[in-house]
UniProtKB/TrEMBL annotation, chains A, B:
Signal peptide boundaries: none
PROSITE patterns per UniProt: GUANYLATE_KINASE_1 (PS00856), GUANYLATE_KINASE_2 (PS50052)
Binding positions (ATP): S16, P17, S18, G19, A20, G21, K22, S23
Keywords: ATP-binding, Cytoplasm, Kinase, Nucleotide-binding, Transferase
One family name in Pfam for this protein: Guanylate_kin
Organism, scientific name: Cypionkella aquatica
GO terms, molecular function: ATP binding; GMP kinase activity
Protein name in the entry: Guanylate kinase
Amino acid sequence: MAQTLSRRGLLLILSSPSGAGKSTLARKLMAWDPSIRFSVSATTRKPRPGEEDGREYYFRSHDDFKTLIRTGDMLEHAEVFGNFYGSPKAPVEAAMLAGRDTLFDIDWQGGQQIRNSSLGRDVVSIFILPPSIAELESRLRGRAQDSDEIIAGRMAKSRDEISHWAEYDYVIINHDIDHSFNELTAILQAERLKRDRQPDLSDFVRNLNREFEAR
Amino acid sequence: MAQTLSRRGLLLILSSPSGAGKSTLARKLMAWDPSIRFSVSATTRKPRPGEEDGREYYFRSHDDFKTLIRTGDMLEHAEVFGNFYGSPKAPVEAAMLAGRDTLFDIDWQGGQQIRNSSLGRDVVSIFILPPSIAELESRLRGRAQDSDEIIAGRMAKSRDEISHWAEYDYVIINHDIDHSFNELTAILQAERLKRDRQPDLSDFVRNLNREFEAR
């Protein structure tokens, strides 16, 4: 069924430790419903070769970024190793008003800030857990030839991330990517079917009543 | 993924005006997941030819029924044309404890009573709307050769039922039965993935942490 036009888009927050399958799920979800907008983060770090402004990140100067924070134009932000990262608010609000959902691939700190923001009541948050730590580590090692030290750092960060699973609305244990993807789309479908997310229903029922009266 | 054993089953309430497709959806859902238990109503009306005690209804005497109400053994009940109808509580509680969901095919009055019962926090309620009243009437007329008077009575009841759509968690407009069925299963899948409906997650994450520590 077509989405109703006046529907407010929702904010879909996907978090997980790195290696649990979050980015694959996000990519599949964007392909499944191209109306979903992916929230591109802004950052003060320098672009790497091949990165494009507005695709991987919005690249901003420190001064610009601080202004955006001060003026309330960042939905969430964090400082990591001297660089700022954050989610610009304006494109999210524009998507919401157009009835488009926005997908956030962010960590628990970003998720917490968005939930506590003025747009918090439109947040649907999903945490992806790995089936085991052995599996998580093997996925991390399989990706690249990183040193044990780098892997150890990622594993420590994963443990910290996992400790926040209980702040999320839904939890998916990613045993199998296709099964998990099916669960992810079920959550999105269900959230869109919630009565209070279908503002056009009142008009729809009003028309049914007119039909009753005209019989 | 297998359901966790300690999960408490939920109470899935499906309501709609007669002719909107509710019974077809209920039947398909039971076939889709045979672990779902259909809540068979109790009634004081006499069995019709072909009806079996415990299948269509639990047939009870007026005295027995009144006792069940008095002892709090009815989750909801109503009197219609001198006969009682209601949902026995014990089999629902037994299913819940066994981690099985129970499906209720009941009207808004029953739904309201169950939502306000001691089991209310485990209720997920879904209202099925017809695409139009013309379509609803044609489905009602297509079913049987009923008199215009009987049809008129059903349509009045439908209008009353529809007026309660806003008391439900989810609303599905049944344009197409396959599409609506897909939406219904999405709702059930999503509800089962809610963090607070997965009591075994705490243990699961505790085991992940043990794995971290053992590295």
